[in-house]
Amino acid sequence: MNAVQRWLKSLESRQSVDGAAERLRARVRPFLRDRPALDKALRGEWAGHAIHPALVTLPIGCYSAAAVCDLLGRRETARHLISLGLLSTPGAVITGLAEWSDLDLRQRRVGLVHAMANATSSVCYLLSWLSRHRSGDTAGRGWAVLGLAAVGAAGAIGGHLTYAQGAGVFRWSDRPAEAVGERPGPRPRTPSDDAADDDATAGGRHERATRPGGS
Ligand code: HEM
After folding, report:
1. Is residue 57 part of a domain?
2. Atom 1 (ligand 1): residue with closest C-alpha?
3. Could you list the residue ranges that cross the membrane (predicted)?
4. pLDDT mean across residues, the chain
5. What DSSP string runs through 97-151?
6. Is any ligand 1 atom within 6 A of the Cβ of residue 85?
7. Is the pLDDT of residue 148 over 50?
8. Fewer Cβ close by (within 10 Å): the C or N end of the chain?
């Protein structure tokens, strides 16, 4: 395991974010549980898979294109792209929160760090946008560089969440995987799985607790 993989893995046992994660989840999950149609729509039941990864291409694409425009001296276009990136962010945030609130403990930890990195990038791009209107391009370009770094880090963490931890895999439907004609994914986690993970972490063992029938 290299240093990047070790760092991403270490986020799974970061208990310092548990308090904030639980407070946020206590607001989001009951709200969506009372509105099952909205919950399923945001988690992509209509598409057959999570829709967060599709929606995040909008801000990421706009910010990346803005960086190219800045390099080419196309300041006006860069500013418009940053406006579009900021305007497309709520869709990514809402679908991300809906998915995150239904994940297991270790995934929620990584997800919260991912959300904080994305919040940092949004603040940087907002400051970039404001600077381009008020104080000029130099400060605006500086904030955009910081924003792109934060969105890159957030993407790496999101990738770990999706591909290493399997977040979002078969979470979009109540139906078992077999019922939608797919290979079965990991079985849904239960509170006792979370407790087992906590015990493992408290005991200094950071590996994921074994889940019978799971991955
Ligand atoms: C502008 C805001 C955001 C961006 C650009 C973003 C970006 C990403 C990216 C690139 C991935 C990896 C997807 C893949 O390659 O398959 C991801 C996954 C994920 N993100 Fe976000 N994210 C944002 C906001 C949030 C927020 C606020 C949350 C809530 C905590 C969140 C929760 C998740 C979850 C649960 C996953 C894993 C499941 C999945 O792939 O759908 N994201 N995100």
Report:
1. yes
2. 89
3. 81-98, 110-130, 142-163
4. 86
5. HHHHTTS-HHHHHHHHHHHHHHHHHHHHHHHHHHHHHTT-HHHHHHHHHHHHHHH
6. no
7. yes
8. N
